[in-house]
Amino acid sequence: MTAAGSTAAGPPAGSLRQMLVPLALAQFICSFAGSNMNVMINDISTDLNTTVQGVQIAITIFLLVMAALMIPGGKLTDRYGRKRCFLAGLTLYGIGALLSAVSPGLGVLILGNSILEGVGTALLIPPVYILTTLLFTGVAARAKAFGLISAMGGVGAAAGPLIGGLITSALSWRWAFVFQAIVVGVIVVLGRKVLDPLPPDPTRPFDTRGAVLSAVGLILVVAGILAADDNVWLMLGLIAAGVLLLFLFFRWVRAQERAGREPLLSTSLFHNRTSNFGLVTQNAQWLILMGTSFTVAAYLQVVRGYDAIQTGLIFTAATVGLLISSLAAERLAKRRPQRTLIQAGFVLTALGVIVLLALVTGTPGVWAFAPGLLLIGLGLGLMLTPSVNIVQSSFSDDQQGEISGLSRSVSNLGSSLGTAVAGTILVAGITATPERAYGLAMSVLAVVAIAGLWAAAKLPKTAANRAG
């Protein structure tokens, strides 16, 4: 059964909009979780007797667990059903949030937030994008649906510091996790109305060895980046081991395909040139968003001495910019090619990073951060939706589980790399040479924006959109 057929004979437009609400809220809360801790660095460090690097590690592990398990999570949706995985992921996420709220130390916080919430996210996010692709057909309808989901994801990441700062200042950082658990409870109730257009296939095989090789490989690579400021040889060893495991993973995948068995990830997904460059743009977007969020938030708190609410308020500029451009996604998709929107987004984002470098370094005024963050928000909001739509629409219904897992894995890998790379550069010199460390971290993000612009230029002028 095709998506078009499912939608035509299925629920009316009003029911579809109702089903879109919990899917969009799910993306919001997962993105919120990735950035709201950035404004709690000082509070968590003091309360749990840890350091800035300890909080950075917790945030990075959360993002990395999502990235490492997103592909297996996408495959499990085919076997157990998209709605079932969605609700199971939400339940696990809620448990992790409550555990984080009562954590007595960094170890329990990592277990609750980084592990349980990370695994829960890897289970619930692929169904969000698979169900949206299956339920909404046509360029305009799908652009509108992805526009809302991408907007909620971007707003969750951009508004995470503001909401987290408000909660932390008014109550405690622990209540930010209670807030997550409450939102997850609401999503579970609303999610009961979501329909799955395709039946699960319990006989669908699952590539356990491939899942282990890919997950451990990604974890080792990012762990190596985190070790850069402590031990260069450890960094090189971890990265080399990670690259080796990823190489073995792709060898295993090819061997499985030659033997006629279904691997964790089909190599045919990488035969689509448009999708490949679309994935690169997704990775760059989230790397910049999370890298900027951690770098600016840590700099404001550790160097400038701002508290959680002050830091969160500064990020309002990014949230406003992202909201404006994301909510215009449907109208813009009708008027401009998706490649043009992505290119314009990277130009604005690169300008925003440059403005942050030019106006903030050595400038005492708090509002010096606003213009750059506004430009970054506008740029990211402009391109989040077309990037997702290009990738998802490049494949048929029976490949949506795989491509959704790969797409979300690439995006979350970008998030974890943003926090790991930019954060490691910043943390390494934040006490001795804070201005230099901040400048280097933001310069890396500017280079990523330029690389994303290059990838966007490689997209076809008129990217195809699957209508059914």
From TrEMBL:
Pfam families to which the protein is assigned, alphabetical: MFS_1
Gene Ontology CC terms: plasma membrane
Location(s), subcellular: Cell membrane
Residues of the Major facilitator superfamily (MFS) profile domain: 19-463
Protein name: MFS transporter
Transmembrane segments: 20-41, 53-73, 85-112, 118-139, 146-167, 173-190, 210-227, 233-253, 283-302, 308-329, 341-360, 366-391, 412-431, 437-457
UniProt entry tagged with the keyword Transport: yes
PANTHER family in the cross-refs: BLR6921 PROTEIN, MAJOR FACILITATOR SUPERFAMILY MULTIDRUG TRANSPORTER MFSC
Domain of life: Bacteria
Topology in membrane: Multi-pass membrane protein
InterPro entries associated with the record: MFS, MFS_dom, MFS_trans_sf
Keywords carried by this UniProt record: Cell membrane, Membrane, Transmembrane, Transmembrane helix, Transport
Species: Catellatospora citrea
GO molecular function: transmembrane transporter activity
